[in-house]
Design a protein that fits this description.
The chain has ten helices and 17 strands. It is α+β, with helices and mostly antiparallel strands.
Length: about 375
Amino acid sequence: MDNLTAVKNFNYSETKKIFEQAQDFLPILGTDYVELYVGNAKQAAHYYKTAFGFQDLAYAGLETGVRDRTSYVLQQGKIRLVLTTPLVQTGEIADHIKKHGDGVKVIALWVNNAYDAFEQTVKRGAKPFLQPESISDAYGEIRRSGIHTYGDTVHLFIERTNYLGLFMPGYERWESEYHPIPTGLKYIDHMVGNVEMGGMNVWSKFYAEVMGFYNLITFDDKDISTEYTALMSKVMTNGNGYIKFPINEPAVGKKKSQVEEYLDFYNGPGCQHIAVATDDIIFTISEMRKRGVEFLYVPGSYYDTVGQRVGIIEEDLNELKKWGIMVDRDEEGYLLQIFTKPVEDRPTLFFEIIQRKGAKSFGKGNFQALFESIEAEQARRGTL
């Protein structure tokens, strides 16, 4: 299917009508969990609890009979984060960390039928990762399957219809005495994949043909560029709009773009950032800053023209400026957003915090300021 609309003419209502008329052969109920392979899951869990306000949920490791890995499951709102570290020096997890550093391995999707999801995607060309299987315990049965996507990233299809347990078989409740208050994170808004030059169309085609997604918005190098760097992006979404996967690729520029820097340090394509939603971004950011989370610096001059560009908003602009929160508007409303610096030593994975006040878009009006901020960080690292 051709692009539904250029971003400058983006009309979410018309796009939604097309979705509703389309046959969705892969119904997805939401993001089930995101699993990161990390060098030290215990320490990573402490960081995400402290800095982001995630809560204890479940644990698997030596004490539960697992011999090759340890996993901590954290939750906040509808977000489940799984942090997994290897207990052995060889194997898939250790190899992944050696190659990529800490990063997203699994983007798990909640479906009604994991076996059918596997059949539908594989027959359309997906490379199998996990053959359909059933796992069970005293709380019932989970059915799951999986396919490969860009780089070493995979999608698992998780079916929970007949399961009443905490997370899934093989895990037990994780309880500690340390419970920082949540920071107000609600759900995953979107997850962005970085791919090599020329890969954007390949993977947007994959999501369209293999998974039944649609191209919601396209950004070209005129939309996302500065004097020095540029990238292009296609936002792919499933039929009900619950899942949104922007796919970025570098564009030709005078210097090395953020996508190229990511690909260099991650050693290939992968998940660049996870956008998480909040209902009160000022509370969320003030809490996260107090806990040590570092955010990109937004030049004060950015706020000089915000009022003209976005019109009337409910928030105090001086308060947004204080916290470095950006604003953008589309025909449906406006949004507030801010981006962390990379949460790893490698300049790879970072997070976006977003609050939507009706807007369905992705902050095109903020791209210039965002890119300049990222380029300033690249210059400090000597990678621009």
